[in-house]
Specification:
This protein is α+β, with helices and mostly antiparallel strands. Strand 1 (4-12) and strand 2 form a beta hairpin. The strands form two sheets. The chain has a five-stranded antiparallel β-sheet with strand order 3-1-2-5-4. Strands 6-7 form a two-stranded antiparallel ribbon. The protein contains two helices and seven strands; from the N terminus they run E-E-H-E-H-E-E-E-E.
């Protein structure tokens, strides 16, 4: 069975807002390039032309588990008020959090870049 990755990443938009994302992929390099391209063209929370989407953490899991833990993490962050939820799993943070947490079997405390 092919592994997929559960990841946490971020970028800072042209207005200085810190944007955190949780997601899944089977190819980290391709997905990073897709996010960079997409967020540079976004109408809201636009990434500066010179910036890139950055990963803070990732973990290989089965495809079923990546999707399940992505959903659980997104719901947990919404419940905790991490930031304003933006469609497609992003959170607009008024100030940059030092860490976020992802719980699978254990809780990973992820320092944000």
């Amino acid at each position: 069975m092919n592994k997929e990755y559960l990841y946490v990443g971020h970028y800072t938009d042209i207005n200085g807002n810190y944007i955190v994302k949780v997601g899944t992929t089977n190819d980290l390099d391709r997905r990073k390039a897709e996010h960079t391209r997409s967020y540079r063209r976004a109408k809201q929370y636009t990434m500066p032309k010179t910036a890139k989407f950055e990963y803070d953490w990732y973990l290989p899991l089965s495809k079923y588990n990546t999707v399940r833990y992505e959903d659980k993490t997104r719901a947990k962050w919404q419940d905790e008020g991490l930031g304003v939820f933006i469609r497609n799993d992003r959170f607009l943070c008024m100030s940059k959090p030092d860490t976020v947490e992802v719980t699978i079997k254990k809780t990973y405390v992820i320092p944000l870049g």
